[in-house]
Amino acid sequence: MKKLVTLALGATFALGAFAQAFPSKPITFVVPFAAGGPTDLVARQLAETMRKYIPNANIVVENAAGAGGTIGAAKVARAAPDGHTLLVWHIGMAATAGLYRKLPYKPLEDFEYVGMINDVPMTLLGSNKLNANTYRDFEAYIRTNGGKLNLAHAGLGSASHLCGLMWQHAVKLDKSMTTIAYRGTGPAMNDLIGGQVDVMCDQTTNTTSQIEGGRVKAFAVTTAKPLSKHPVLKDYPSLQEMGLKGFELTIWHGMYAPKGTPAPVLKTLNDALVKSLKDADFIKKQDELGAIVVTDGRMTPEGHKKYVADQITKLKTVIDAAGQYAD
């Protein structure tokens, strides 16, 4: 009995020592997309804030782009489970489970969930050449001309790809638009501005300045209710208001560690994350991006994991209906 107590005390001491030693080297936030995109920006702002809440932390951001985000995610899943390599990813964490026939990891099994960061609304956009100025006009125009128009997105599994799929599925178009995949949000937006493509649905972090500058037309937002407090988007209706019952899509971001990361380290990371989400400067920067910082139970590992499980089911239904899969 004495030996068992000694072993238990030794294990507890070892975990405590591990937590006290953390971090023992730079912490890397792996972003599974190229630098300069919306997720990269969120990760860099979070890294800057979390440095304040983890003593002696040096946090760097590494971009590991490719294969719809799965290359970066797989890299973190294979990393040493010591809390020094973390994944910052968006809704793709849930979407890839239905989109890819084979994944090099299991979203709900191969990661420790640290917590959710934010919700980012989406906007439905059209090029300025479209003969429509309101959502009603836009939908009527699409129903008449859908087979002749192009829908841009930033690559398979991207936020803009998922939004476009969900919207077409909800509207039940007789003739779907031709989808054109780009290697990133920037090139897709450039062609929408130039009129080479007709329609796009993307995050407010990427669209607000283009709408404000009059370079594209906005028709609706994808939140349950209008963004009444948003300085640019407050006058645009929600798709639910426009008759798409139950349509709600935000591009959330979360943080993940490799499976097996010690509980004390995960607690240190979650504590720092929660403090960051309450940090006035971080909230202000997220507001400027049009992002909504999470304040509910999804900040916790358990709450975020349950939310992702629900999202996997929801998104798989849409992806299966569209029949658009990746190898």
Could you provide a short overview of the structure?
Keywords: Signal. The chain has 327 residues and is of the alpha/beta class. The protein is 43% helix and 17% strand.
Describe what this molecule looks like in 3D.
With 327 residues, the protein is an alpha/beta fold. The protein has 2 domains: 179 residues, D-Maltodextrin-Binding Protein, domain 2 (3-Layer(aba) Sandwich), CATH 3.40.190; 100 residues, Periplasmic binding protein-like II (D-Maltodextrin-Binding Protein, domain 2, 3-Layer(aba) Sandwich), CATH 3.40.190.10. The chain is 43% helix and 17% strand. The protein contains 11 helices and 11 strands. The protein has a 6-stranded mixed beta sheet with strand order 2-1-3-10-4-11, sandwiched between helices. A 5-stranded mixed beta sheet has the order 7-6-8-5-9. Helix 1 runs parallel beside helix 9, helix 2 runs antiparallel to helix 10 and helix 4 packs across helix 11. The longest helix has 22 residues. Keywords: Signal. This is Tripartite tricarboxylate transporter substrate binding protein BugD. It holds the Pfam family TctC. Belongs to the UPF0065 (bug) family.
What is this structure's SSE topology?
Layout: H1 2-21, E1 27-31, H2 38-50, E2 59-63, H3 70-78, E3 85-89, H4 92-99, E4 111-119, E5 122-126, H5 135-145, E6 150-153, H6 159-171, E7 178-181, H7 185-194, E8 199-203, H8 204-212, E9 217-221, E10 253-258, H9 263-277, H10 280-289, E11 292-293, H11 301-322
